[in-house]
Design a protein that fits this description.
Layout: H1 3-12, H2 26-32, E1 43-47, H3 52-65, E2 70-73, E3 85-87, E4 90-91, H4 94-108, H5 115-128, E5 134-138, E6 156-159, H6 167-170, H7 174-181, E7 190-193, H8 198-210, E8 216-217, E9 222-227, E10 230-235, E11 238-242, H9 251-265, H10 272-281, E12 289-290, E13 304-307, H11 313-329, E14 334-338, H12 346-350, E15 357-362, H13 374-383, E16 388-390, H14 394-401, E17 408-412, H15 415-425
Helix pairs in contact: 1-4, 3-9, 3-10, 4-5, 7-8
């Protein structure tokens, strides 16, 4: 076990629950550490059910293309914890991370605090002591009581599409979940809102207007779409004709448009040339990502291997649409290799793939006690009308997939599975 893992294990034992939505444990600790949340560069706070990470990836690409230094906070990580904390463009070094983890641990002095709370405090300390131009801050879950909701005056707030997810914590309807997401809105901050279902849109609009905010809504105040192989963006300030995003899938045009709207609404120093450069260079691992290397080599020469961490129905719908686009260019039998946490429904996730997937191989996500068992998942999937076979490992699943000539193989269902795949492929994020 590495030193980092040993520290994180100790911190994870300070509170019996992994998730306990509250700010009451964090705020005294932040006070004891000198309130680092008040010493941050301008913050763009992002909440939503899907597309938070992709939207932040575009914003980072745009700002860095414009010469800006950018902090980023994302979760979860795929392979190494360092991926969660990017300082002025670079992932935090292991040495510096360990020093801050131990410092915060000492100040906390064994008091109950959840893993995500204490590691968010660590990130705030690192961001406060490192010079940068902006901080792109992603919520972990919800908004109102999310650990990141400690910034009193963000420059801007983005709410990406809200859908059913984490119902046990956030509510059982789109409206209830939207109430939580809207909790990151702050008086005096500007807001840009992604595509929403009507009940979610109404909740967010009411919350914004109570705070004196007039938000921009995607599909009403700004638009972005694919036209003739380009991204065409339009708002009241005019039209932009831009390169297509480097990230795969029609949904990425929506995500890119949301980020472009934020740069304009928040007054970021990003011109059209920086937008174009950012769209070409944007990177977001394990989101419809082509895999090359040792795992791809297990398949036949005519096959493709793709990796995506999507794990809910909204994400699966976007994935199925991306597969449809690929089939228009090159039809190929679709093979899914799938592992999921037991808080998700495998049958619901596979709904958008009905009539598309030739075979599903199921895996138990390695080292995750709360993962669906591969055998149980295969039975559930068979009952939903899919051909499904459990496999012991990603290697045996790929070897089985290799028996289907010229297949398009997609590994999906869990970011934890995606991280394990990247580690086994020898291609962790930078």
């Amino acid at each position: 076990m590495s030193r980092t893992d040993a520290i994180l294990k100790r911190l994870g034992q300070l509170h019996p629950k992994l998730i306990d939505l509250s700010l009451d444990r964090m705020l005294p600790l932040l006070d004891a550490l000198g309130r680092p949340q008040d010493k941050l560069p301008p913050v763009i706070h992002v909440a939503g059910t899907n597309a938070k990470g992709s939207t932040i990836a575009y914003l980072r690409a745009f700002l860095e293309a414009a010469g800006q230094r950018v902090h980023v906070y994302n979760s979860p990580h795929l392979v190494h914890f360092n991926e969660r904390i990017r300082l002025a463009g670079k992932l935090v070094s292991t040495r510096r991370l360990n020093q801050m983890l131990e410092h915060v641990e000492a100040v906390n002095a064994g008091r109950p605090i959840t893993f995500f709370e204490v590691t968010t405090v660590v990130a705030m300390m690192l961001y406060a002591e490192t010079e940068a131009d902006y901080l792109l801050l992603e919520t972990g879950m919800g908004g109102t009581y999310d650990t990141t909701n400690i910034v009193a005056h963000p420059l801007g707030v983005i709410i990406t599409p809200v859908d059913l997810d984490h119902q046990g914590f956030l509510g059982n309807t789109i409206a209830e979940i939207a109430v939580s997401k809207a909790g990151i809105l702050k008086r005096g901050s500007k807001a840009v809102i992604g595509m929403q279902q009507e009940e979610g849109r109404a909740v967010i609009d009411r919350a914004a207007r109570r705070l004196g905010i007039t938000p921009l809504f995607q599909g009403e105040d700004f638009h972005g779409a694919a036209q003739d192989g380009r991204l065409v963006y339009q708002d009241e300030d005019g039209l932009l004709d831009l390169p297509p995003p480097a990230l795969i899938g029609a949904h990425q045009y929506d995500n890119a448009a949301l980020a472009i709207a934020a740069t304009r609404q928040f007054g970021l120093p990003v011109d059209e040339a920086a937008l174009a450069k950012g769209l070409r260079q944007v990177v977001w691992p394990a989101r419809m990502m082509p895999l090359r290397g040792r795992l791809r080599d297990l398949l036949g020469p005519g096959s493709e291997l793709w990796l995506d961490g999507g794990h809910n129905v909204h994400g699966a719908t976007a994935l199925a649409q991306a597969i449809d686009e690929m089939n228009r260019n090159r039809p190929a039998p679709l093979v899914l290799i799938m592992g999921m946490m037991n808080t998700r429904s495998p049958a619901a996730f596979l709904g958008p793939f009905a009539g598309k997937a030739e075979q599903v191989f199921t895996l138990t996500v390695p080292n995750e006690p709360n993962a669906h068992k591969a055998t149980d998942m295969a039975e559930t999937i068979k009952a939903a009308g899919f051909a499904a076979t459990p496999k012991r490992s990603i290697l045996s699943a790929l070897q089985a997939a290799a028996a289907i000539p010229n297949a398009r193989v997609l590994i999906c269902g869990s970011l934890y599975l995606a991280g394990d795949v990247l580690a086994k492929n020898g291609t962790p994020p930078d």
